[in-house]
Design goal:
The chain is built from five helices and 18 strands. It is an alpha+beta fold. It has four domains: about 55 residues; about 110 residues, Immunoglobulins (Immunoglobulin-like); about 40 residues, no CATH class; about 90 residues, no CATH class. A hairpin with a 4-residue loop joins strand 9 and strand 10. Helix 2 runs antiparallel to helix 3.
Length: about 350
């Protein structure tokens, strides 16, 4: 049995109901309806036709504005020109609000949330623009990153006003963009230099003893040592068996363990006072850069709140900036967790 197709009137009714859910009457519409009602009531009670003539323009203007109403809410998008930058760097961002409807908006009020570690001139104020139908309007912004981390620009919210100010839309929301801000490197010089020998990657080898071709010294023969490792010259001279000890054919790795579970002091950003976490992260970036420039593989390990460990590693073969190898942890706050993998819905982030 074939189902009956919905008629055009039913489709228009659903379209009207959906549009009414997305658009809310403003106080101006309420005042217009109240004024028309009072004038018509006065005309009926007093028998004055002039009051009907006075009410007609208000009624026709409100009816015409409601009849030419848009059906879609504005679309918002947040875009940045860079994905990562260093502390103290600047970036350009664009807030784009679009009108996908065939009816123009009278005006659009746009506002965005901004991280406290991103300084945006006049960023805490709402912006007002007009958007013709089928087009979009761009709002350029300049942001200054004052602290390492992953500060967010957004989400952005836009409200459109249409029908001569009689209707206001539900908020159109644009997703927030997170910018990776890397710490400024502290100057670091190693007192104990790493051996300048050829490793698998880079100019340094591991100091761990094991099977390899780099001689580390001689030692007494022990259980498990191979006979081919016996140093007969030293053994004949000392009348005891000695074997040659070698270094393992592995890369030298520098692992930085960062404790970011607790914070002490108040951070003022790159131009203010340093907290304990600021000093820790910037020092780790300086140490990693020192060894990465010399061909070693460096990485960081960070314990998270739930007890697991997150780590990252970078080899000397990469051509990226050394400080980008160290994962930038989130500054600890009551609503942030340092490990995104361990975050589950229901926990504060």
């Amino acid at each position: 049995m074939a189902r009956a197709r919905p008629t055009d009137e039913a489709a228009r009714g659903r379209h009207l109901a959906d549009a009414l859910r997305r658009w809310t009457p403003t106080q101006a519409l309420g005042r217009a309806v109240l004024l028309v009602g009072l004038l018509l009531a006065g005309a009926m009670l007093l028998g004055q036709v002039d009051l009907v003539v006075l009410a007609a323009p208000f009624a026709l203007g409100a009816a015409l504005g409601i009849w030419r109403r848009p059906a879609r809410v504005p679309t918002v998008r947040v875009a940045t020109d860079v994905e990562f930058l260093g502390e103290g760097g600047q970036l350009s961002a664009v807030l784009t609000v679009g009108n996908l409807d065939e009816v123009p908006y009278d005006l659009v009020v746009l506002r965005t949330a901004i991280s406290p570690w991103l300084v945006v001139p006049h960023g805490d104020r709402p912006y007002v623009t007009s958007v013709p139908p089928g087009t979009g309007a761009d709002l350029p912004l300049r942001a200054h990153a004052v602290r390492w981390g992953r500060p967010a620009l957004g989400p952005a919210v836009a409200h459109a006003v249409a029908a001569d100010g009689l209707l206001i839309s539900d908020p159109g929301t644009g997703r927030a963009r997170r910018i990776k801000v890397y710490p400024v490197n502290d100057v670091f010089e190693a007192d104990d230099s790493m051996p300048r020998a050829a490793g698998l990657v880079g100019a340094h080898h591991s100091r761990r003893p094991g099977e390899g071709g780099e001689l580390a010294g001689v030692r007494m023969f022990g259980p498990g040592d191979r006979l081919r490792r016996i140093d007969w010259r030293v053994s004949l001279r000392t009348r005891q068996l000695y074997v040659a000890s070698t270094l393992s054919d592995r890369d030298a790795e520098v692992v930085l363990v960062l404790d970011v579970l607790h914070e002490a002091g108040r951070s003022g950003g790159i131009h203010g006072t340093r907290s304990v976490l600021d000093t820790t992260v910037r020092a780790a970036a300086g140490i990693a850069e020192h060894y990465l420039h010399r061909g070693a593989a460096a990485g960081s390990t960070t314990p998270c709140w739930s007890g697991c460990w997150t780590s990252t590693r970078r080899s000397a073969g990469s051509n990226r900036r050394p400080t980008r190898s160290v994962r930038t942890p989130c500054p600890p706050t009551p609503w942030s967790w340092c490990c995104p993998r361990c975050w589950t819905p229901g926990r504060p982030r």
